[in-house]
């Protein structure tokens, strides 16, 4: 990995990593996109208020806040985590609902799902069948196993679409569940038009 040499580069890499647009991040930290651009180009330092909002919305762990604020002021911080290291430390691996009963059997279905994802390379698999036969429970048990085995670096998420009343709510619901910022509203706008 290339070493990050400036605070501005760090901000830009972290923003990209979290999938914020400049406009999206600017809106969250209550400044203009031009201000974010100048910060990323090291043409300007953020005010203390903007730096605090950047720390919040760039998901800086509390243990790194002091170092982040020092870097924002232009101070040298020798042991500041790179955006990649920060993501690895702070990454939410899943939001899977806790199951109160053990999952028993269904080895052939587990093998089928493993084959569909890891051998055949499918990115989407739909489980179909009559209501109440255990499709969701199977999917959750399989997902729990993937989290335990660290198969998906970006995590495994459960998103219930059952309560949605309209199709145009699907994308924002998915984006919120996986903490995907920036492009989500643009995607929704494009889909609705």
Which segments are poorly predicted (pLDDT under 50) over 5 or more consecutive residues?
183-193
| Cα radius of gyration in angstroms | 21 Å
SSE topology string: HHHHHHHHHH
Net shape = elongated
Full CATH superfamily name of the largest domain: lambda repressor-like DNA-binding domains
Number of self-contained structural domains: 3
Query: What is the terminal-to-terminal distance?
Result: 41 Å
Biggest sheet descriptor: none
Oligomeric state as shown: single chain
Textual characterization of the structure:
This protein is mainly alpha-helical and 193 residues long. The protein has three domains: 7-90, Orthogonal Bundle (434 Repressor (Amino-terminal Domain)); 93-157, no CATH class; 159-193, no CATH class. It has ten helices and no strands. The longest helix has 14 residues, at 135-148. The two termini are 41 Å apart. Mean pLDDT is 81; it is low at 183-193.
Q: Mind sketching the topology for me?
A:
Blueprint (H helix, E strand, L loop, with lengths): L6 H11 L4 H7 L4 H8 L7 H10 L7 H8 L10 H8 L16 H13 L15 H14 L21 H8 L6 H9 L1
Helix pairs in contact: 2-3, 4-5
